[in-house]
């Protein structure tokens, strides 16, 4: 390994999406030697696909709005395994973070008075659920993620952040004490493998929706950070919690924003009935996403689905009129025409619940520090490792994320991690350097692929993995199917361990990247499957036929998946916000 | 900002404006000449010479010549920077072009005010 | 009938001394799939094929390429829109150095984007809330901020082909105008000063290839016209 080049930074941020670039911006401004390492050019990251907006109590649509109401919605939306201290931090710091984005130039839509436009989204209420529907989601038409990501990239350019674009992080490097001291990374263009040394390694690698065959996620969402962390022995929190977005375009999986329903659209079954009125009499189509997705599946299972096979429902928007659609939802009109061959001004869009968001991830505190557990089950900080954004589980989303909260999560906790790392660096960080053996350990996986001489290829194995997850770990789950799924995944892991990379070339070898991604998909899928099998209750996005009720006595807890033993443990939920009273778990209705 | 020293006005904006203003002059001059030829069926040397002996026509013609020179320089300078990448050859070509334009301009003035 | 003949530009710097076209037969089963789906099917036949892709829904701008002679995004271009006589020819974006197969080196393109200082400049102390902007002022940014940096426009522009190091190109200029048009930006004079040389803006000859190929339906030529108007108004 002595001939391997190394790069040294104060902080290396793996991932160039919203959370990574927000953290990088904070560090770049402070003058720390920071680099963003991203497998795609940063504006190609999946944040770009976020549509509807960023939820935050900036009191624009309603001058009386209160961040505590937002916090209440967030905790309730998460079915009470949201960490309340984290939700408090996000909702109270949120306005600052959103105003900063505006000052950076984000082109928010506007109200007549010149303030930021806010639209209603699912699960939003005034006065702790007693004051009716709120409109709290700040929007740039239906391209908020695009506007946010480009704004962050632009401001990183302004502050001279170092970018390692089209570099792929292979694995974390740990020293003899178990501290994370950087990573092994590959320059995709040349194939050169480099040891990146850093005092702080930030996982901002986003989600992993590609473990399912039908997902709104980009093709790059392969859980690289989760995979790296699991291989480094770091436990994962709440991995069974996967959000299925109610409105993925049928057949294509492409997302149609909840903002459609926020602007007045609604779902209908084959009889033209607005069925959400039955399932959620108050919030109707703007109930929590898990509630809406389950209701849609119930309609389909009970024979009221639309289309030849009765396997989807319709999202009706034509009554909004062309002007509202053109002004507020122009991107949706485009996507519907391209992927559903439907003009939403004239016909309804065929939609179906589609895998959308990973609520679980690396457990962290509000500073982004990764948390493991010691032998007695106490929290233990993992030195040198941080996680932000979808890869992290801080946990503000609990068992079900509210629409518009992901963008807020990105900027609030990206910023918080940046600030914390800056002060930690100022105080001085000194970890033991990695030995040749430590580096060798992190190189094992890429070496295995490079030396493979025959066996099954990546595309077929990936398809097999996605089919298992889709059939056994979807919207509704049950013991026997999940047991079968876990078994099949165990077999698949063996097959992947013997899989073959035919193309060993160096220049822009995307086949090698996809092989490395497959390992990560495998890690995420297995963590998800085992956690889902072991959480014997229904809560938020995790719904079981065999355990249909929430079980607060045993499961008002985070799950913690330990990769070495493939064991599911638990971690206490935080019920101790600093400035407000905690929200007691209640029956969750909309 | 991209710097350069061989274009006409040192600024893209002034070149652009010069090219458009000169185009208008050239269009008007062309229209006038074509119209004059169309409406003067029995045109002979004396009439033609008489037209060009008038001061306003000489000024109009000189304006058109200068416009043509400027227009040609801006246009040909653009063409040389687009297509001739080796600096030596490009500067050589530009020198020949500017020399030719200069010669034609002086010659034109001589024709107009000579005789 | 459902077999599509795909002709692909191939070049691997490690093994090929020159690029060449390679033919593939793809069974589409008669479905009107996207060009990106076809590429994935080819990649199952030939693991070594290199192309960029990410969102697969036309918002990330990764998979800009030349399809039967016209630039566009593979993920939102259905076969029915491009295929002629059962044949699909795919080449990398023209005018940029090829790294491998359909992957081009976008360095020059990004450099021109960075040159126009693509970020809001306003040194006045920020208010405690957002800066106010009227809906009318915000409307001026529509058709500008939506650019996804896919480079379809700039790489179809002859002026950019001839002077990629000096002419900003349609994508960069669209963004230059996005900030010039923003009521919150205060660097108008400095921005214009950077653009008034004979190359940055004025190499645009109004060919309008950029408008013809933009997958987001944006109009860089119009934005360039507006920049010229601002330059003129500023200097006369």
Describe this structure in words.
The complex is a heterotrimer of chains A (590), B (115) and C (236). Chain A has 590 residues and is α/β, with parallel strands linked by helices. In chain A, 35% of the residues lie in helices and 21% in strands. In chain A, the strands form five sheets. In chain A, strands 1, 2, 6, 7, 8, 9, 16 and 17 form an eight-stranded mixed sheet that branches. Chain A has a five-stranded mixed sheet with strand order 18-15-10-21-22. Chain B has 115 residues and is an all-alpha fold. Chain C is α+β, with helices and mostly antiparallel strands and 236 residues long. Chain C is elongated and about 60 Å long. In chain C, a hairpin with a 2-residue loop joins β6 and β7. At the A-C interface, α3, α4 and α10 of A face loops of C.
Short description:
The complex is a heterotrimer of chains A (590), B (115) and C (236). By secondary structure, chain B is mainly α. Helices cover 80% and strands 0% of the residues of chain B.
Rounded Rg of chain A: 23 Å
Poorly predicted regions of chain A are none
User: What's the Cα radius of gyration of chain B?
Assistant: 17 Å
For the largest interface in this structure, which chains are involved and how many residues does each contribute?
A: A-C, 60 and 55 residues
Amount of beta strand of chain B:
under 5%
Average pLDDT reading of chain B? 92
Major sheet details of chain B: none
Number of strands of chain A: 22
Shape summary of chain A: globular
Distance between the termini of chain B: 48 Å
Helix fraction of chain A, binned, reads 25-40%
Shape of chain B: elongated
The whole-number mean of residue pLDDT values of chain A reads 96
What oligomerization state is this entry in?
A: heterotrimer
- What is the helix/strand order of chain B? HHHH
Number of discrete helical segments of chain A: 16
Annotation, overall tally of beta strands of chain B:
0
User: Can you count the helices of chain B?
Assistant: 4
């Amino acid at each position: 390994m002595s001939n391997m080049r190394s790069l040294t930074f104060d902080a290396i941020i793996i991932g160039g999406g919203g959370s990574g670039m927000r953290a990088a911006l904070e560090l770049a401004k402070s003058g720390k030697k920071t680099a963003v390492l991203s497998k795609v050019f940063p504006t190609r990251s999946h944040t770009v696909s976020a549509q509807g907006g960023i939820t935050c109590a900036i009191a624009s649509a309603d001058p009386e709005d209160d961040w505590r109401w937002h916090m209440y919605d967030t905790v309730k939306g998460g079915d009470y395994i949201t960490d309340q201290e984290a939700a408090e931090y996000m909702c109270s710091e949120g306005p600052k973070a959103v105003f900063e984005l505006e000052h950076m130039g984000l082109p928010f839509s506007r109200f007549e008075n010149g303030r930021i436009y806010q639209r209603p989204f699912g699960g939003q209420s005034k006065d702790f659920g007693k004051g009716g529907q709120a409109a709290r989601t700040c929007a740039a038409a239906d391209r908020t993620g695009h506007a946010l990501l480009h704004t962050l990239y632009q401001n990183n350019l302004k502050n001279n952040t170092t970018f390692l674009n089209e570099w792929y992080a292979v694995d974390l490097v740990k020293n003899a004490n178990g501290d994370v001291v950087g990573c092994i990374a590959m320059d995709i263009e040349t194939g050169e493998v480099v040891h990146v040394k850093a005092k702080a390694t930030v996982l901002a690698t986003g989600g992993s929706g590609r473990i399912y065959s039908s997902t709104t996620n980009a093709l790059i969402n392969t859980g690289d950070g989760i995979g790296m962390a699991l291989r480094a022995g770091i436990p994962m929190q709440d991995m069974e919690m996967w959000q299925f977005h109610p409105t993925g375009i049928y057949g294509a999986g492409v997302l149609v924003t909840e903002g459609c329903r926020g602007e007045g659209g609604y779902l209908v079954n084959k009889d033209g009935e607005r069925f959400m009125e039955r399932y959620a009499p108050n919030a109707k189509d703007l109930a929590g996403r898990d509630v809406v997705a389950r209701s849609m599946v119930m309609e389909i299972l009970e024979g009221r689905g639309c289309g030849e096979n009765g396997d989807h429902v319709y999202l009706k928007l034509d009554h909004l009129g062309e002007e509202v659609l053109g002004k507020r939802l122009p991107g949706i009109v485009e996507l519907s025409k391209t992927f559903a061959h439907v003009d939403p001004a004239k016909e309804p869009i065929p939609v179906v619940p589609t895998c959308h968001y990973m609520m679980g991830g690396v457990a962290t505190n509000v500073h982004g520090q990764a948390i493991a557990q010691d032998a007695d089950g106490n929290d233990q900080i993992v030195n040198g490792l941080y996680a932000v954004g979808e890869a992290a589980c801080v946990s503000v989303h609990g068992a079900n994320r509210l629409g518009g909260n992901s963008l807020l999560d990105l900027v609030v906790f990206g910023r918080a991690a940046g600030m914390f790392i800056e002060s930690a660096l100022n105080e001085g960080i000194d970890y033991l350097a990695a030995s040749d053996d430590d580096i060798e350990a992190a190189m094992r996986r890429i070496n295995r692929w490079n030396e493979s001489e025959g066996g099954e290829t990546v595309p077929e194995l990936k398809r097999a993995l996605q089919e298992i997850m889709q059939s056994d770990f979807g919207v509704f789950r049950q013991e026997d199917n999940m047991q079968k799924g876990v078994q099949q995944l165990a077999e698949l892991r063996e097959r992947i361990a013997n899989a073959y990379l035919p193309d060993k070339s160096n220049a822009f070898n995307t086949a090698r990247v996809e092989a490395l991604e497959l390992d990560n998909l495998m890690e995420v899928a297995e963590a998800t499957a085992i956690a889902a099998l072991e959480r014997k209750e229904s809560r938020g996005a995790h719904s079981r036929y065999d355990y249909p009720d929430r079980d607060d006595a045993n499961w008002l807890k985070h799950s913690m998946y330990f990769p070495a033993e493939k064991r599911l443990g638990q971690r206490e939920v935080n019920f101790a916000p600093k400035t407000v009273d905690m929200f007691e778990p209640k029956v969750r209705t909309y | 900002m991209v710097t350069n020293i061989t274009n006409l006005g040192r600024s893209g904006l002034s070149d652009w404006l010069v090219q458009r203003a000169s185009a208008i002059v050239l269009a008007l001059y062309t229209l006038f000449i074509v119209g004059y030829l169309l409406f003067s069926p029995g045109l002979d040397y004396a009439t033609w010479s008489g037209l060009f002996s008038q001061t306003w026509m000489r000024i109009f013609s000189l304006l058109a010549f200068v416009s043509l020179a400027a227009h040609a320089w801006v246009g040909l300078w653009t063409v040389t920077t687009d297509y001739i990448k080796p600096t030596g050859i490009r500067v050589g070509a530009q020198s020949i072009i500017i020399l030719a334009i200069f010669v034609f301009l002086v010659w034109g003035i001589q024709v107009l005010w000579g005789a | 009938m459902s077999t599509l003949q795909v002709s692909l530009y191939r070049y691997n710097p490690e093994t090929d001394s020159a690029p060449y076209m390679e033919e593939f037969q793809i069974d589409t089963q008669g479905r009107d799939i996207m060009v990106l789906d076809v590429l994935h099917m080819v990649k199952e036949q030939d693991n070594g094929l290199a192309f960029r892709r990410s969102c697969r829904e036309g918002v990330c701008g990764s998979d800009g390429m030349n399809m039967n002679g016209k630039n566009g995004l593979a993920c939102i271009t259905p076969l029915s829109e491009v295929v002629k006589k059962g044949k699909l020819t795919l080449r990398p974006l023209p005018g940029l150095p090829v790294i491998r197969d359909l992957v081009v080196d976008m360095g020059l393109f990004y450099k021109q984007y960075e040159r126009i200082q693509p970020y809001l400049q306003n040194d006045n102390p920020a208010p405690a809330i957002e800066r106010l902007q009227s809906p009318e002022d915000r409307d001026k940014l529509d058709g500008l901020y939506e650019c996804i940096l896919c480079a379809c426009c700039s790489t179809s522009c002859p002026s950019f082909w001839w002077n990629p190091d000096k002419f900003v190109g349609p994508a960069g200029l669209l963004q230059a105008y996005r900030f010039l048009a923003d009521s919150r930006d205060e660097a108008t004079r400095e921005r214009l000063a950077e653009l008034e040389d004979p190359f940055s803006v004025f190499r645009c000859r109004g060919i309008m290839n950029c408008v013809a190929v933009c997958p987001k339906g944006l109009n860089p030529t119009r934005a360039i016209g507006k920049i010229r108007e601002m330059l003129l108004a500023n200097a006369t």
